[in-house]
Please model this.
Amino acid sequence: MAEQKKILAVGAHAGDMEVSCGAVLRKHARAGDTVTLLHLTLGEGGNPAVSPAKYGEQKRREATAVAAAIGGDVMFGPYCDGELPDTNETRRYVAEVIRKVRPTHIITHWRSSIHPDHATTHRVVMDAVLLASLEAVVTEHPRHRGVQAIYFAENWEDPEGFTPYVFVDVTDELESWRKWIVTYEFIRGGISMFRYLDYYSALATVRGAVVGKKFAVAFDVDQLEKKRTLDFLP
Model:
């Protein structure tokens, strides 16, 4: 039996991780793995027709419902949409979450993005993994050195330099994902002119075609992790 995984998906805004890799998270939850979503902000500034306070309440309800559909837990950071601070305090906050959740695998944003919150999230998470592992960094929870892998989700706002490297077959999950991801109003339409559902559905088709599956979700990894050590050629 494979060892149980604990996956922590860290997004800049509620909805980022679910729309880009929610089908993968659901697949792991169905397999018995633990899934936790951390939204550093609610993305409360994303609806020009509604106040940030009101839309933030809506996004919190939507995120809670989607986490339940995935079969995971959800946590909400204390930060404001568009103002995610690139500071040591933010890094310590995420490090404390890592120590509390104790993930074996982390999923977050790619390093380059047209959205500053996404790029900041990447830097914060990468540094927080190190902080969480250090004995000298004292927080409420003991250090955690068990992060085995960090994956970067494919997001339409984070394209520069992103190279699909790891592909996960989500053929059995995509139709279910299409049903519950529209819990988010910005996904089902009416807020943004960007066709989120069509884009990510089509992307899953394209990634699946590349690897001989009906649907797949792709991730990138750090350049230093792109190596394999074998006794012979596979």
Q: What stands out?
A: Residues 52-70 form the longest helix (19 residues). Residues 93 and 128 are 8 Å apart (CA to CA). The chain has a mean pLDDT of 96.
